[in-house]
Give the backbone structure.
Amino acid sequence: MPSTKVYNMAGEAVENLELSEQVFGVTPNVAVLHQVVTAQLVNRRQGNASTKTRSEVSGGNKKPYKQKGTGRARQGSTRAPQFRHGGVVWGPRPHRYHHDVPKKMRRLAIRSALSDKVANESLIVVNDIGLEAPSTKGMLKLLSQLPAEEGKRVLMMLPQRDENVVLSTRNIPRAKVQHVSSINVVELLKHDYVIMPVKTVRWIELVFGEGVSAEEATLRVTQNADDASVTRATSTTEGAKVSSEPLIPPATGETLPLVPSPNEGDAPTTPSSDSEV
């Protein structure tokens, strides 16, 4: 089973994370990768290139000169293709560029790209990515502390939009931030390193490994994160209760001082005027 190290914000390895064999451990299929990348690049084309034929060009309604007696070739319009400002022959016309790829092939291509990143140690998993305020300097410091070569292109995939991270990264030419639901083969192959939190890894395993929908995967990841935070808070509270208990038990025959109850005041009670002196 493939595994990778999990780093903190300081670039220190804190634990070892086991990855799904079905998603991060497949043999890359180069043929499918090529077909999916080609289709994705073709589908980006707008297909709005257009030229005008001789019937669409303005002007040329009058015969330039008489048919015979000039010694020149006969012409009927100055907007014929051989004339300057004439129409274009076999020029591009607006049409739709589209290449359909089956869903299974698209998902196989993404699994192949992710497996290639893991095999080449180009997948960097962190426990969390976040900044208190937008700071390009802080983002550069974070990237320098992670095990990524300087000058390489970095893709950060977040489980949810973080405005501070987005604003801190947009001035760094070699870094890009995108939501995990926008994962695609072209971006994975174009960038040298992929940085993602543990939540993003679990989201990818749910969607591309177990076939869960993107919405359900987001709900599961969020619910698991909330449960983990509640568990940590409960363990912290129990630890505080245990630490409040006395560490050394009282000796035999010795009693501990009584602690006044919350209902008892600290001020001494003064005798009333009716009491006897």
The helical segments are 21-24, 30-43, 103-119, 136-145, 163-169, 185-190, 198-209, 214-244.
